Amino acid sequence: MDLEKAEKTSVLAANQGLYNGFLAGGLLWSLLVKDSFWGHQIAYYFLSCVLIAGIYGAYSVNKRIFFIQGVPALLAIFFRLAV
């Protein structure tokens, strides 16, 4: 990536980093909630957000995004449901 393109997309990258930070914070919060029912509900919500973002990224940017972002979210949802 050249310097001009990096400068043009820096705001997008910062926004994406902030978004990912909120998702990570939400998943961490789900681990800290004392009531296991609510902890699971919070985790499902944030994992669903990650999954939806992966689906949208695959649709709008590159199909590989689904495998990087969506599949891990799907696996986490599956294993949480299996417990």
Q: Average pLDDT across residues?
A: 91
Q: Could you name the ranges where pLDDT drops below 50 across 5 or more consecutive residues?
A: none
- Note the run of SSEs as H and E: HHH
- Report the portion of residues in β strands: under 5%
- The gross shape turns out to be elongated
Largest sheet: none
**How many DSSP E strands?**
0
| Secondary-structure class | mainly alpha
Task: Describe the 3D structure.
- The N and C termini lie far apart (44 Å).
- The chain is an all-alpha fold and 83 residues long.
- It has helices at 3-32, 36-60, 64-82.
- Helix 1 packs antiparallel against helix 2 and helix 2 runs antiparallel to helix 3 (64-82).
- The model has no long low-confidence stretch (mean pLDDT 91).
What are the defining features of this structure?
single chain; mainly alpha; 83 residues; 89% helix
In short:
The chain has 83 residues and is mainly α.
Q: How is the topology of this model organized?
A:
Blueprint: H1 3-32, H2 36-60, H3 64-82
Helix pairs in contact: 1-2, 2-3
